[in-house]
């Protein structure tokens, strides 16, 4: 950075050329923190656009100016536009006598089932009655896995074995939850690669048939560009295959897992929020029921820029 | 696009090469290849394609393509051969990796792959239910090191390929790495074993680089291919005409 610290006092207004070297460094830094390449680029472009033509304080370094603009922009992106307050919404659903439904979706092995169990535990702590629905009827062992969590947490589970249409299992589960006066149904689904057409179709059917209150995209904090691809494809395919043409947004929120494995490479959080506009609602940070947190925007921003 | 330009350009100079390399870098970057690796690759190629030394008679296009191809293969080639089990011995193969990366699934595929070739594999699995969150601090399972040791003892007479599944771990977990060391120690008959090969899973989702031995192409037991660098690189760039560069 030392080569960039000369002050540009006296210059009338910032030009792109003044900013370019600093921006290049920030872009590379963002990428080493796992921010997807094109998002790092877009971010730098927008920071540049906001600064070009601005007057520079006489003793301010270019890097300081860029850093400040970058911070502002990161906080703006990471702060959810649509805020979802699950606890409030659960109580609202309860008042009208129906269970609140959350569907967990994502590619294989990202942590859907484990974090579903963590969310169940979290809801339990708030005196909410939870039921699990074993709608991964595809991968062997998936039902037993969920059953184990249900037993440990002493939560009812709705299961219909394998080879069943998961959309129908979910429907029956929600019906059962209503009958037995549960507050929340947590729907586990099979992992699927974003390009797998038949499996995406099945997921879309599940969502269309049951109209859940919340579709949570579960993604690993480890991913770089691929995470963005996963999320856009899930969003896109679910919207395309949706029966109601008005629906353009299909993912309501993001659950970012394996945060404990990434050290300071927190870029996936930024990439995913930037791409989808959906908020990071939970962060999974370990293999205990209590390892579920809220995203700390300030500390993510700090990690990205240092 | 730049690939096209390279074949269209009538005069190939430094600029054409730079555009071409930038385009390739961009593609690799969006495929999550490490930044440092890409810049090393770039400078290596620039060293090979030296415009000052290339006389007019040289086919620059071919030289550039060859250099890029070789460099991509080099990235994927660790410089040593991947581990191959030896028939007639009891081979112990242990799978390690991040949580949810596909170890358990791949163990089965690996064993099946060899079974089809007439081997006698045995699978030692852990975490049968996969719900391995400890509840109120107590791990319910038995000691994985002991289980593995007993399993290997039991199978080594009658099986020539003992595949050991382990639970997921990552670099921030010192205790699990100690367990990994112990697992290797008790099952590997005191041989000094390093990582012998890498398996890349979930290639049905995306093409990514890496140093690898075999790749998984799906969730089903028979979706497993042995990895070969050169065809992989050709496919990575979606180019049929690389075949001329390959060893027959
Ligand atoms: N370190 C860490 N591991 C996690 C976290 N969340 C889940 N895991 C682990 O990731 C692995 C996969 O978790 P699952 O919950 O089975 O993932 P899934 O998405 O349901 O997998 P499929 O149903 O097979 O697609 C397990 O070993 C979990 O213990 C987390 O926040 N941190
Ligand atoms: N699409 C696809 N899915 C795969 C592949 N390999 C594994 N999976 C899926 O990835 C998920 C996790 O696989 P596992 O074999 O349970 O992973 P693991 O590494 O044993 O997980 P832990 O023991 O929890 O650390 C499952 O849903 C598998 O079906 C593959 O090559 N392609
Ligand atoms: Mg699951
Ligand atoms: Mg496993």
Kindly describe this structure.
The complex is a heterodimer of chains A (306) and B (248). The longest helix of chain A has 17 residues, at 16-32. In chain A, α2 (37-51) packs across α3 (62-78) and α8 (197-210) crosses α9. The model of chain A has no long low-confidence stretch (mean pLDDT 90). Chain A has helices at 16-32, 37-51, 62-78, 86-95, 112-125, 142-153, 166-179, 197-210, 225-240, 267-276, 297-305; strands spanning 100-105, 130-135, 157-158, 184-189, 214-220, 253-257, 280-284, 292-293. In chain A, α9 links the parallel β5 and β6. Chain A has an eight-stranded mixed β-sheet with strand order 3-2-4-1-5-6-7-8, with helices on both faces. Chain A contains eleven helices and eight strands. With 306 residues, chain A is α/β, with parallel strands linked by helices. Chain A has two domains: 2-78, Four Helix Bundle (Hemerythrin (Met), subunit A) (Up-down Bundle); 86-297, Rossmann fold, CATH 3.40.50.300. Chain B is mainly alpha-helical. Chain B folds into two domains: 2-79, Four Helix Bundle (Hemerythrin (Met), subunit A) (Up-down Bundle); 91-196, Rossmann fold, CATH 3.40.50.300. Chain B is built from eight helices and six strands; from the N terminus they run ααααβαβαβαβββα. In chain B, β5 (214-216) and β6 form a beta hairpin. In chain B, α1 (2-8) runs antiparallel to α2, α3 (35-48) runs antiparallel to α4 and α6 packs parallel to α7. Mean pLDDT of chain B is 75; it is low at 207-213. Classes of the chains: A alpha/beta (306), B mainly alpha (248). The structure holds guanosine-5'-triphosphate (GTP) (2 copies) and magnesium ion (MG) (2 copies). The site of one magnesium ion has 4 residues of chain B, from α5.
Key structural traits:
heterodimer, A: about 300 residues, alpha/beta, 2 domains, 8-stranded mixed sheet, B: about 250 residues, mainly alpha, 3-stranded parallel sheet, 3-stranded mixed sheet, 6 strands, binds guanosine-5'-triphosphate, binds magnesium ion
